[in-house]
Amino acid sequence: MKYYMTGATGFLSAYIIRDLVKDGHEVVVTDLAPHPEFVADMVGDESLMKQVTIERLDVTDLGAMILSMKQHKPQRVIHMATLLGAASDANPGLAIRVIQGGTNNIMTACVALDVEKLVYASSANVTGLPHLFEGNEVPNDAFLTSADFYGVQKIGTEHLSRLFKEKYGLDSTGLRYMSIYGYGKAFNAARGSLSPFHTELIDNPALGKPGKAPYGDALLDWLYVEDGARATVLAANTPNTPSRGLNVCGQRATVNEVAETVRKFIPDAQLDVAPGDWKFPPYLYDAKTTADEIGYTPEYSLDEGLRKNIDMLRTRAGLPTV
């Protein structure tokens, strides 16, 4: 099986590539600013990297995209290219071109070239007003609404998915990843949401550096990166999911609870967590629909994910594991 990926040398994408090549697939990796070293680090086997082709691609260029995909003839496509959070709010015009324009382009190319399955990165922000549910879980099929520009653009991608299915029969599934953590997050700070937050809370203590994190009482859903990658591959292997978008969840915990787990592994960690909550509602999202439709449930507990995150950082820094 041949896969074609956009935005594919970033944090989560590198883990997806690793899983695909280990399963014997070929992967065409495209990115506006390729980072092949990180992909090679994640794949970890020089012989497996022979199954990976890396190219530069701007997802706003439909012509270049169609020509590239026509050359490689993929059966499945994973679209991860985006403009995240604050960058979208700072430059709405560019966000429209990259997020909605890029998604329209990849869907158009998939229809034109008879791709059998498209998986694309949506966002938990598409149901970004959880306070409307009064502390209950946000259902997977909740009304799509958002308090920020990034979320509004991602809502557009889910509507595009529905329309391309109705008009052209395109089989696509959007994944709404929660707060992803893991080794490599900080290396791709420009691409990853909450990266400085994760660096202070996890990476710095792991490497013997002081860390200072805000919002100790904030409740998030912590998704270990390998679970996020596995969910993506499961979605790519599942035809005709009933839902256009699916919540990809991990384990719920406050920032203070994450800090306590880090301290359990690193007792002398210099980690200061400020009290208080943040402006966003708690991460309380339905996970059952995703389990029913693609068979995904998280395999990593918060303890297991944080320990692996910390050990990978320390190993690469020449420090003993915890």
Protein described:
It is globular and about 55 Å long. Helices cover 42% and strands 17% of the residues. Strand 5 (117-121), helix 6 and strand 6 (172-177) form a beta-alpha-beta unit. The chain has 2 domains: 2-179 and 225-248, NAD(P)-binding Rossmann-like Domain (Rossmann fold), CATH 3.40.50; 180-222 and 251-281 and 299-316, UDP-galactose 4-epimerase, domain 1 (Alpha-Beta Complex), CATH 3.90.25. By secondary structure, the protein is of the alpha/beta class. The chain has helices at residues 11-22, 36-43, 62-72, 85-90, 92-112, 149-168, 195-206, 225-236, 255-265, 288-294, 302-316; strands at residues 2-6, 26-31, 52-56, 76-79, 117-121, 172-177, 179-181, 211-213, 219-224, 245-248, 251-254, 271-273. A 7-stranded parallel beta sheet has the order 3-2-1-4-5-6-10, with helices on both faces. A 3-stranded mixed beta sheet has the order 7-9-11.
Largest sheet: 7 strands, parallel
Mean pLDDT: 93
Strand-pairing-aware structural class: alpha/beta
| Helical segment count | 11
CATH secondary-structure class of the largest domain: Alpha Beta
How many domains make up the 3D coordinates?
Answer: 2
Radius of gyration: 19 Å
Overall CATH architecture of the largest domain: 3-Layer(aba) Sandwich
The low-confidence runs, each spanning 5 or more residues with pLDDT under 50, are: none
The CATH superfamily name of the largest domain is NAD(P)-binding Rossmann-like Domain
Shape: globular
| Percentage beta strand | 15-25%
Helix content: 40-55%
Strand order of the largest sheet: 3-2-1-4-5-6-10
CATH topological fold name of the largest domain: Rossmann fold
Number of strands: 12
Protein name: dTDP-glucose 4,6-dehydratase
GO molecular function, one term: dTDP-glucose 4,6-dehydratase activity
EC number: 4.2.1.46
Organism: Falsiruegeria mediterranea M17
